[in-house]
UniProtKB/TrEMBL annotation:
This is Cytochrome P450. The keyword Membrane applies. Keywords: Heme, Iron, Membrane, Metal-binding, Monooxygenase, Oxidoreductase, Transmembrane, Transmembrane helix. It comes from Leucocoprinus leucothites. Its main location: membrane.
Amino acid sequence: MSWVTLAAASLFVIYTLTRLGKLYRILISTRSHSISFVLIGIKSAFNFLLPGRIPFINLGMNSTVDDKYTVFGRGIDVRTFVSLIPRIESTMDVADAQAIKEMASGARTGLFVKPMEFYEHFLFYGPSLLVSEGTLWKKYRKIIGPSFNERNNRLVWDEATCLVSELMDRWGEQQVVTISDSRDVTFPLTLMVIASAGFGVRSSWEDSAVSKNHAMSFQTALRVLVSGLIHKAVFPAWMLNFTKKLREIKVAFDEVQGYMGEMIQERRHQDLEEKHDLLSNLLRGENVDASGESLTDQEILGNMFFLLVAGQDTTAHTLTCVFALLAIYTEEQDKLYRHIKSIIPGDRIPTYEDMPSLTYAQAVIFESMRLYPIIPAIPKDAVKDTSIPVQGVNGEIVHIPVVKGTGLILNFTALHYNPSQWENPYDFQPQRFFRSWNRDAYLPFSTGPRACLGRRFAETEMIAIVTLLVSRYHIEIKDDGLIIGETPLQRRTRLIRQKVSVTAGPEGVSLVFRKREV
């Protein structure tokens, strides 16, 4: 046997023993909870591309929203799956409130970090608050954070009510308005709010035409790109020419970049000192770290795109769910309407000062986000051997060992359906938020130091929109969307179907807006 063959064989044996040793450590660490095996890891590009879940092959992109809590409930709220591709690794799926809080706060201690190998798939236009860690993330947060303030929230409210009023003016005297896809209302509405309140670009329902030197309108380009983000993330640029759909995504990507560039150039010619919105703060983002380094054009574009998607896509999806739920649970819609009218009688437009009193609208939105979190889960990586505290079968705290390199899924959807935290978790019960509830078990905006900066922005926008629309229109499911004898839960399961790409957006629902007597 030649020395080359011997060396190769030795290396193979060492590699195999190392892999087996890692697998043994994984198995030892999971003795207290369930374990399963899949071929392809959840962070692999192959998992993005395969059409759904294939037993023993992959979990599928939709596993969190499809399974909810059903894969737990057999002891502690942790399960582990071991994958072999692209390498042997374990991932812990966690639906325990205390453990999730511990892992989210681990960003402060450095125990649990964002898996940049996964997030770098979404490094589209440049670095951003989403695709960053450590000092770079702190730098972006310091620049962006001050934009979310009381003055901006008031602007959000005014823009939202103004745009809803414009929409109702377009509907005019029609007693019945049929919308074949509810996203045709929620998507442009939320885009116009974030464009105005976040970036100082005022538009109206008439501004859907294609701008000069563009192939798509901004609304169309952003909608196409958001729906195709996974394709853009996974496929190399040369593959985006293969099919009509991929070519459309490629064009949309370039169009969105062009529109954002125009917004930036227009704002640079204005007095930034008089403006305090997101875009102005990004352009003013200099001398924020020890080096005094300002943001590059790529950093401005990257953060601008992230804020557009975070501020528009997630809110649009939530409103789509809210309107569908109110149409399905008509008794809850009636309670909401009566509560609104007790605060805002007649045809008065709700004001920002009314918002603290609009508690039922807030509860409806909270319950919708509990049932259909738009961010269903977030991944983390353990950077050293540690443990996480979870509730045991008898209520005791059990510390589960976590091996360095283990991937973790903070499963918000499963947590929101966890019966130890929520009574009758599948029921649509806005009233549950008027009782005592565990704040650590409700995480539609994540938690810890990386929790969503724009939470108040989003809540303000949604309360304004829901309040004004429900005060003027009764929302119903279109007749052809009804099945006789169907329970509300069955109807909800059939009509509100989330599909996970970057966010968990629902499919559009055909709705009827029936004008109320004011």
